Amino acid sequence: MSVVKRCLIIVVALGMAACSSPVVSTTTTSPPEPTTTGSSTTTTEPSAQVVIYLLMNDVGNEARPGPFLVPVERTAQVGDLESTLTVLLAGPNTDETQMVPAIGTAIPDDTVLQGVEVADGVATVDLSEAFESGGGSFAMFARLAQIVYTATRFDGVDSVEFELAGAPVTVFSSEGIVLDGPQTRDDYIDLLPLVFVDSPAYGGELGNPAHLSGVAAVFEATFQAAIVDSEGLIIAQPDYLMTSEGMGWGTFDATIDYDVDEAQWGSLIVWEDSAEDGSEVNIREYRVWLVPAP
């Protein structure tokens, strides 16, 4: 049995176990309806594909089981951070909550976005007081991370300052999380799987050739990847991919050639071979849209 076939079996078997007791809550959202005024319909601004960050109940490894952040593709108004954050607050859709492993959110479903301002690379995000309700320390850090990663995906946004009901936050929630200045992605690195594909997003187009970028903390700076078609067949599997650092977190930016006759749903799978026994660990699978080469 090939490495990736074993990998897929592990994803399914351990993913079911992870979903039996999810750490994060899940919510359901429906597509927005057009706004109407009297007999006329007001059209919204042009929409585009954007990326929000939810939480996936990863199966990773026993010492670091997750859930971890996952980029997920959505539709929102072009170039509008406020619209994108509103989509984030709506949470995962029904399909995402029922998949294996499940996708969820740590953000309370009654949280309301009250405003966003961007100046000098800092996005000031004002949320309702419900944002800090319920949950333990993991849930609190996770919801902060979801906002920070989603906002900093935008060009011109490097960090986030939080407000609750218009008041600046220096200590967040009853967990006493100190927010001593603008929050960056590096402040929430522990919320990432050890192989974190930031692009493509879950549910997004893979492109052809596939372009993968992200960060990873893997042994000897190497990890594995495979592309699987709609029938579950492996259509691309390089020998390995590499990060920029052999110790700790490093970046990666790689391309993978693959071949399909027609556009279809498939999967991108990444994992690390354990330095201890060679088993596949830190597995993550993204549903992606495969397209023929131009």
Highlighted features:
Immunoglobulin-like; globular; 2 domains; 294 residues; alpha+beta; 19 strands; 4-stranded mixed beta sheet
Walk me through the topology.
Blueprint: H1 3-19, E1 35-37, E2 40-42, E3 47-56, E4 68-77, H2 81-90, H3 94-98, E5 103-104, E6 113-119, E7 122-127, H4 137-152, E8 159-164, E9 167-168, E10 171-172, E11 177-178, E12 195-199, E13 210-216, E14 222-228, E15 234-236, E16 241-242, E17 250-256, E18 264-273, E19 280-290
Main sheet attributes: strand count, strand direction, barrel closure:
5 strands, antiparallel
Question: What helical percentage do the residues reach?
Answer: 10-25%
Overall, the morphology is globular
Distance between the termini: 33 Å
The value of Rg in angstroms is 19 Å
- Tally of individual domains: 2
Strand content: 35-45%
Look at the structure and give the mean pLDDT: 86
Query: How many β-strand stretches?
Result: 19
Q: Give the helix tally.
A: 4
Unreliable spans: 1-44
N-to-C series of helices and strands: HEEEEHHEEEHEEEEEEEEEEEE
Label the structural class: alpha+beta
Write up this protein.
With 294 residues, the protein is an alpha+beta fold. It has two domains: 3-27 and 45-191, no CATH class; 195-290, Immunoglobulin-like, CATH 2.60.40. 16% of the residues lie in helices and 36% in strands. It contains four helices and 19 strands. Strands 14, 15, 16, 18 and 19 form a five-stranded antiparallel beta sheet that branches. Strands 6-7-8-9 form a four-stranded mixed beta sheet. A hairpin with a 4-residue loop joins strand 10 and strand 11. Helix 2 runs antiparallel to helix 4. The two termini are 33 Å apart. The model is unreliable at 1-44 (pLDDT under 50).
